[in-house]
Amino acid sequence: MRLFVALDIPEEAASYLEQVQSSLRQEVKADRWQSLHNLHLTLHFLGEVKEALIPAIQEDMDIVSAITKPFRLRMGNLGAFPNEHRPRVLWLGLRGHTEALKQLHLLLGRRFELHPGLAFDRREYSPHITLARGPKSGREGLPLADWDERLLQDEPPHWQVNHIHLYQSELKREGAVHTIIHTSSFEKDHSKKQAVLE
Questions:
Q1: How far is the C-alpha of 9 from the C-alpha of 39, rounded, in Å?
Q2: Do 18 and 124 touch, CB atoms closer than 8 A?
Q3: What are the pLDDT digits (tens) for 105-144?
Q4: What is the spatial distance between Cα 115 and Cα 8, in angstroms, rounded to a whole number?
Q5: For the whole model, what pTM was predicted?
Q6: Cα separation of 170 and 38, whole Å?
Q7: Are 184 and 63 in contact (CB under 8 A)?
Q8: Which of 61, 88, 100, 143 has the most CB atoms in a 10 Å sphere around its CB?
């Protein structure tokens, strides 16, 4: 099964992203504009995973979620990988409690390390939402600061993160279909064990 761990992006934030992407389409050409359908914020892409490993992954998510407090995020500024002068990816970043988000990514990674054969991204986490791949920049590069000023709202959407999801991703002719197969809520005791009264 093809799996990844991700956060929800609420509807208001998704609509905002669509507006930003629509405005950028008037400003720059790109090889491919990212579909914003079924939008989420990926924490770890796990790729093809044996079904026998899924209960352990779900337990890892529950353990990390039990010690994670809810935190707030909001939409940030535009950016590009590797940079605005040689852009391969155009993205919108996140602000708010991003340290809590990075800590969540790190703790999940530490749990996933315990499973030989489970692949996940070990690079430093840079939370972002991809808007376009292969944006065409002129000699001056992409005018990111100008776009931030003209195309982004002063008060972009913000929201509270309360849980994480394990998604199954199925590649179909009409595109990828993502299905939630497990949810772990923050600060919740996921232990199945009940206290025994004496």
A1: 6
A2: no
A3: 999 999 999 999 898 888 889 999 999 999 998 888 999 9
A4: 26
A5: 0.87
A6: 13
A7: no
A8: 61
